[in-house]
Structures are given as structure tokens and as C-alpha cells.
Write a structure and sequence with these properties.
DNA-binding, MerR-type_HTH_dom, elongated, mainly alpha, MerR_fam, MerR family transcriptional regulator, DNA-bd_dom_put_sf, 211 residues
Length: 211
């Protein structure tokens, strides 16, 4: 297919496709003339994946490049790929110096028995959250973590089951990308919907099917 058809089928404007090509996010097409190239279904698939990461996941071009490098690395394990993708989706590590928040986060991971490195982006992000909660006067926010952990462990099981059902490692790695980017967005949306539902039920007990 020509670039115009690739644009039409993917919903990505031609100038954006050319930008992705220049940035190496999309492999070059097969040249049919000095100024024309032919693209295959693989290009369409990769373009849709890039679009999901950029538009839905909010990833930077550099982060997308790192994730695609993970997908294209034949030696990359699924476990390591998940870490790479999750780190790319996450915000840059904040510079947190709140010792109380750090101790709270450390006590939490030890209580859960989680092997989470203190220099990991996830641990640092948690410290930042707890520090912010303290700054705005929500000192009891830390008490929510254990309940959050139980819910997140269930989500993690769902995530892993999703990718492990894939037919190949390549599909599984791609599933990690899509599941992380779209999964986070879906969880945020569902959480908002559930919170609204619970609030409605508590205002009107008769609306609760359990009474």
C-alpha cells in the first residue's frame, strides 16, 4: 500500500507517518521509485501500536523508541520487557528527599514481602506520592496502601494471564505494551466509574442490589 492508504487505514496523518519514519519508530517501506515506497500490513500494525503508545499512553518519542527496541530484541525476556515497558510508561523519577515518606514506603514493601528495589522507579514514585499526601495534609493516605496492594495483585495476575495466553513471545511482548498502556487507562476509567457507582449506592441504599 502507498503512504496515503497507510494513513487512511491507520488514521494517522501522512506528515505524522513521515515523522515516525524519520525518528525510526516505523521501518522504511520498500522503494518502488526514488520518491515512492510500498508499505505492508506489518507497517500498519506497528503504526497502530505507536499511535496507541503516543496518543493513549502519552509516551514521548524517546520512550516509544525504547519500548520498540524491547519488542525487536530477540534476547529480551518477558519479565525484563515488562519492566522496560512499565518504566517507559511511568513518569520520570522524581527527586524526593522526604525521609518520613521513604520510611513509610519501605515499611509497606517489607510488610507485603515484595522484592522491590529502593532505587526502582516504582518505589521512588510511591515515595513521591506519600510525600505529596503529607504535604497536602492527608497523612492517613498511607493507610490505604495495603488495600490498594490487594487490588493491584489481582490486576497483576490478570495482566500476566493476558500476555501468557499469546501464541508467541513477540505477541506476548506486544501484549505487555498494549496491556500496560491501555490497561492503565482502562483501570483509571473503571475506577472512576466504580467510585461513582459506590457513591450513588451509598446515597440511595435501595439502589444497591445487596441492600
Amino acid at each position: 500500500m502507498r503512504i496515503a492508504e497507510l494513513s487512511r487505514r491507520s488514521g494517522v496523518p501522512v506528515p505524522t507517518i513521515k515523522y515516525y519514519l524519520r525518528e525510526g519508530l516505523l521501518p522504511a517501506g520498500e522503494l518502488t521509485s526514488p520518491n515512492q515506497a510500498r508499505y505492508a500490513d506489518a507497517h500498519l500494525h506497528r503504526l497502530r501500536l505507536v499511535r496507541a503508545m503516543v496518543e493513549m499512553g502519552g509516551l514521548s518519542i524517546a520512550a516509544v523508541r525504547d519500548v520498540l527496541g524491547t519488542l525487536d530484541d530477540p534476547e529480551m525476556s518477558l519479565h525484563k520487557a515488562m519492566g522496560t515497558v512499565t518504566a517507559a510508561v511511568a513518569s520520570p523519577d522524581p527527586d524526593v528527599t522526604d525521609e518520613v515518606a521513604h520510611e513509610q514506603a519501605l515499611a509497606f514493601v517489607e510488610r507485603q514481602g515484595w522484592e522491590c528495589a529502593q532505587d526502582s522507579f516504582a518505589f521512588t514514585a510511591l515515595v513521591d506520592v506519600l510525600a505529596t499526601a503529607r504535604e497536602v495534609g492527608q497523612r492517613r493516605f498511607v493507610d490505604l496502601l495495603d488495600d490498594y496492594a490487594r487490588a493491584c495483585l489481582q490486576l497483576a495476575e490478570v495482566d500476566l494471564d493476558y500476555v501468557l495466553r499469546m501464541d508467541s513471545k513477540d505477541e506476548a511482548l506486544e501484549g505487555v505494551v498494549v496491556g500496560t498502556v491501555l490497561g492503565d487507562a482502562a483501570v483509571a476509567a473503571l475506577r472512576a466509574m466504580a467510585r461513582h457507582e459506590v457513591s450513588e449506592r451509598r446515597q440511595d441504599p435501595e439502589a444497591d442490589p445487596e441492600g
